[in-house]
Amino acid sequence: MARVSTDAQELARQIDALKTAGCARIYLDKASGKKDTSRPGLTAALDHMRRGDTLVVLDLTRLGRDTRELLAIVEDDLHANGRHFRTLDGIVLDMCGELIFTVFAAIARFQRQQIVKGTREGLDAARARGRVGGRPRALTPEQIADAGILLGAGQTRTDVAAKLRVSRWTLSRALDTAPR
After folding, report:
1. How many CB atoms are located within 10 Å of the residue 179 CB?
2. CA distance 133 to 148
3. Is 5 noted as a catalytic residue in this protein?
């Protein structure tokens, strides 16, 4: 079972690790950390599993979003039906592993919170130094000014965009957001 939170994230690393571990079937989900988000991959994996099968994930954060959800999946969906669970980072749970599982789930959640906190702090520090993230602008202020002159001379946005080697949409957005 592999899961990422957004379409921008890649599943390849998880898929490769699961294949290397010898997983016969790999189910995929792209689901955010929001509650009540459907997980068709997880549902299909649980529907396919039989007694004695093992659900394998890269780490605990790929199975559930919080400790309560992790416990519900492992206890209600897996152990109650004679199925097993393990992570590729070394967590193997049996029927008696709930306490240890709860501790590991809490640690995984704490680690995730620390990563998010560190990322936010890094972005805030970069902004304080005047650095702005994101993709570089496609057009310089000079190109935008030149585009305004060409448009004022009667050329179409399509022609001006072609001369600047950008899409018409990019040109329009640059013109709409340019200071006047």
Report:
1. 5
2. 27
3. yes
Cβ within 8 Å of residue 59, ≥6 positions away:
87, 88, 89, 91, 108
The backbone torsions φ and ψ at residue 134, rounded to the nearest 5 degrees and listed phi first, read 100, 180
Helix/strand/coil percentages in the chain, nearest 5: 55, 10, 35
Burial of 62-89, coded b for 16+ CB within 10 Å and e otherwise, reads bbbbbbeebeebbeebbbeeebbbebbe
Whole-model pTM: value is 0.55
pLDDT by 10-residue block (mean), the chain, 180 residues: 74 91 91 70 93 90 79 84 86 61 78 89 91 86 94 95 95 87
* pLDDT for the residue 117: 93
- List the catalytic residue out of 5, 32, 38, 167: 5
